[in-house]
Amino acid sequence: MSDNPHQQPRRDGQEPQDEGRLEPRPLYKPDVDPAWSAAFARPEGVSGSFDTSSAWRAAPESRDARSGVQAPPVPLAEAFSRPAEDAAGGAATEAPGTSLQRPPEEASPRDPVSNEPEPALWSHPSDPWRDPGAAAVLGGPARAADAGTSAETPGGGSAGMLSLSEVLFGRQVKPRALALLGVIALLLGSAGGAIGWWIGSTGSELTGEVTIAEAEAGKERPAGSVSEIVQRVAPAVVSIEVAAGPQGGVGSGVVVDGDGYVMTNHHVVASAVEDSDQEVTVVFTDGTRAEADIVGSDPKTDLAVLKVNVSNPTVIEVGSSAELTPGDSVIAVGSPFGLENTVTQGIVSAVDRPITAPGQGGDPAVTYDAIQTDAAINPGNSGGALVDSTGALVGINSLIRTGDAQGGGGSIGLGFAIPIDDAVEISESLIEDGSVTHAWLGVRAGSVSSGSSQGAQVQEVEEDGPAADAGISEGDVITGVGERTVRDAAELVVAVREHQPDDVVPMDVVRDGRQLTVDVTLGSD
């Protein structure tokens, strides 16, 4: 009890309120409808939310009886119950594809094109959300259980894309992948910068002006071209200078051996042969100068061999003059009029052309079987190289025919070279012995008539010579030596020199209109 006399005790055991306050209005509790109480009240004997008695679970019909469940109204049963043909079977006998509240076929709207009834909205089996009778479907997890696999949506598609902040700071991507992306970005940036730099350096502003790169000086020179051949041959062709007091002579030469042997013409070094005090100097294409010694010379074939002391000189490739035929391409390399490394090109005009020229300073006449060419050969080309289309040495340039009766002037397209086959044989003899011996007939002959090709007429016979011993006399006309036809005096000399001393050679002779053949044992000059 309270000490305040004015307080009165509350009903229902509550504490008395202060004097002057109204009591709460009593609760209004209407009577419960017996039908609702039968439907929603707890069964008898159940005090909690769930009935744990086995009898209640085992006998569901008693549950309906006790709960007072009434049958549904007839209109609702007709609207929402299963079709009559399936009612007896229940869920166990329901035909596949049958669904609740399917509109009758007659009431379904029809397609305006095919006039076929359209299916119900929920009749498709792949759309369980519109089928009230479908079982529950559980979707996949929002994220894959395995962190190493990418998450997918229940429909099979990829999960939502990540934002930049989630990629960088959300620990959604492995650090190794982020590093790889950074490297790729760096490479792409570098490539873009390089391309931009190249574009900026190769062109100027949009004015049409560009920077043109300089073209290389070299040109393509296919194998076998004149320029390619000359590049290989020229270093083996030298200039020869002969100092004769205040004056001097200039010619050409060809290096034919690695020991420093050089082929040239006798008339180039003739003055130095007579006067040993004169100096002979060889000048190479790179400007190197070297003093040369005369190994030997042959005035009758206009050939000489020099020797220079140089290390590892460029040596020309020696070919074969016997394989030449008129029309073959040839190249002449030499120093005409002192112009070093001059190159001219032409063809072989003739082979086995007997040519003769007077000797210099009391030397005997020069006679040999020449290669005739229309390649320009001028004074100073003497002793230079005549090479074929492969760059092989086939001749030593020696003589020219000019339009001047005194032998002056330049080339008129008639040049002559010593065949390399004969030059090699003579040079080997000069290197080994210092001299050369030729077969000798012992006659002095001349042409039958000027410009004729009737043979060589004997004008003088030396006593005790090979011709005298064979019975050849003055006035005889020699028309053949061995198997070679003799057309003039020059060809008689070269025909005899094709043989060796002491060879017995048959000769065709015309005497007083009669054809004779005599055997001659050749001598040595």
Automatic annotation (TrEMBL):
Residues 1-157 are annotated as: Disordered. Residues 439-513 form the PDZ domain. GO terms for biological process: proteolysis. Residues 86-98, 133-147 have a biased composition (Low complexity). Keywords: Hydrolase, Membrane, Protease, Transmembrane, Transmembrane helix. The keyword Disulfide bond does not apply. The keyword Membrane applies. Residues 9-32 have a biased composition (Basic and acidic residues). One of its GO terms (molecular function) is serine-type endopeptidase activity. The chain crosses the membrane at residues 178-199. SUPFAM superfamilies: PDZ domain-like (SSF50156), Trypsin-like serine proteases (SSF50494). InterPro entries: Chloro_Bact_Ser_Proteases, PDZ, PDZ_sf, Peptidase_S1_PA, Peptidase_S1_PA_chymotrypsin, Peptidase_S1C. It holds the Pfam family Trypsin_2. It comes from the Bacteria. Belongs to the peptidase S1C family. This is Serine protease, S1-C subfamily, contains C-terminal PDZ domain. It comes from Haloechinothrix alba.
